[in-house]
Specification:
364 residues; 7 strands
Amino acid sequence: MAVSRHQSPRRGRKPRFLFFCNNMKKHSIILLKGAIIGGLMGSAMYLLLFLRDSMSLGDSLFFAEYGVPFFLFFEMTIPLFITLGIFLSYVIFYKNLSDSAETIVLKNKDDNKAKDDLISMTLHHIRTPLTGMMWSTKELSFETPADHPQKNRIDKLCEETVRILNTVEKLIQTSRENNGRSSYCFENYSMEKLERLIAESVSKMRPVAYAKDISVEMETSPLSNRSVKIDNDKIITVVQTLFENAIHYTKSGGGIKMKMEEKGDDFLFYITDTGIGIPENEQANIFSQFYRSTNAKRVRSEGLGIGLFLAKSFMVAHNGNITFSSTPHGTTFIMKLPVFKLPEQTAEKTIPANNPQTTQPAGR
């Protein structure tokens, strides 16, 4: 045991020593190259000036005009050229290093794209049989009498199949977001229609909240006649993700409050829970892909950490945003969408100028 105790520090020092030696070797080679380049440059200049004086070229002799002895000129300029050569050598080295790093980055991007394509293709192949299983189990559950001894097991199988299929769908969507392949179908929605869409999305999940003895409140402020441009499927996903997280991380007996309002040129949807909150030192990563806070993992072990990543990506694609504030006693998420006013439709049809027909008085 004593031998292993003494040997372990040596193993720890050896890599650091080798790293130091490799760096010394690398920098020594750069310095040597620079010295050689600088020496050659200085010698070349010295030789050119000497030949110029020897051949009496030009109006005056360089060394005779300035009274500089040959050896003194050589001693003064060669160190300067060596320094310049070392500088150029480092510039060349770091330029090559930068080019190598750029090549590695591009290669990694290509590798990541190939990996994402493989994952996406695999997920699509998994989704096809899962979809068939889902419909088969739903049909089996529907046809099984309520008093059948296997009814609960069949219903559980159906629920788990739907859950797995939803997870696969989220992974496929994440892969599309990473590759920039997500498709959006934007439509103009009035404030009233958007309010109805959000309310319906929430109502589908209310029973889950009530089953945990969590109260749910919805407040709506007066809305204008302006509109938003949205992909309704993506907005439903965002709303349900926020509501589902609020349910998961709020304890029994807690509450969830939601509010819709217009503020300036934005439509805002607030969802506030009395849950576990998000630790302050982890809040910066909450929208990162596959990230889950430590307290969320303790409360609910299952989960991939892609729901908020997708919600944020969807809102950015809508020129909107998701922000939040959190304390140990609860969290508030705010979904923001830009609103605009549709051009007013004219009551009368405009008659082209070259049309000789005139407008008739109303009522005829």
